[in-house]
Amino acid sequence: MGSRPRRAAGLLGRPAGSGRTAGAHPGVGGPGGPWFAPALASAEPTDPRASLYGRITPVVRRPVAEAAPGRPVLGMADAVVLNDPVAGQGANTAARCAAVYLRAVLERGEDGPFDEDWMRDAFERFWSDHARHATAYTHALLGPPTEHALRAMAAAGRHPEVARRLGAGQEDPSTLADWWYSAEATDAYLAEVSGGGR
Ligand SMILES: Cc1cc2nc3c(=O)[nH]c(=O)nc-3n(C[C@H](O)[C@H](O)[C@H](O)COP(=O)(O)OP(=O)(O)OC[C@H]3O[C@@H](n4cnc5c(N)ncnc54)[C@H](O)[C@@H]3O)c2cc1C
Cα(78) to centroid of ligand 1, in Å? Predict the structure, then answer.
């Protein structure tokens, strides 16, 4: 991804003028939509050409830097894993990072040592449990939507369970890992929900 703005073509990137507002989308405003759906019921694009673009180049940095010789520091949240805000993941990811690091501190205990190995291990836990999922989800929303993602969105309009599962993915993208990125897994899930049809 370069520095040129990219239109977010997935869930969030429906261009204005396509006849649907966010509030009118069945996956958002329909049964099983999130708690804030009523607030979006009459939402309109700000102008006919309004749409969402991605602009931030995603970055994953080395988590440990040296503040002074022999004084390693551990980076957290946006400082080490930066994604485009288009998917709305940064704040939750920052909070999860704080929680993972807090747990790592408590597990290590007062006497430490809080050395580089401990820092790298804490970051690895943050990356593997949370940050990689937020990163994958953000990338998915920045690219053109896959056919199976569109099938899932369409199914969300008919099946509240699918809408809820997609909504849960926005809140915690690790829940998408075993289905949303695979056409096979998505279609198997949709077939299960709809009892064979879609
Ligand atoms: C336009 C936009 C929209 C976004 N929308 C969403 C959204 O809808 N949902 C979502 O979850 N996330 C969203 N995000 C992302 C979210 O804001 C960030 O991921 C999150 O704030 C990262 O938290 P952080 O603590 O790492 O960094 P920050 O919140 O940026 O905090 C860093 C702090 O460090 C301070 N600081 C910087 N340098 C120094 C220094 N040298 N000395 C002392 N202090 C310093 C800064 O002033 C700042 O207060 C959005 C971001 C942008 C830019």
Answer: 7
